[in-house]
Amino acid sequence: MKRQQHQLKLRKEYADAVLSGEKNFEIRYNDRDYHKGDLIYFRVIDENGRDIEHKLSGKEFEITYVLAKFGLQDGYVALGIKQTPFRLKPEPIKGYICDPKKNKECAKTACYERGGLCCLTLNPEYAKEAKHE
Question: Which comes out higher in pLDDT, residue 9 or 116?
Answer without folding.
Answer: 9
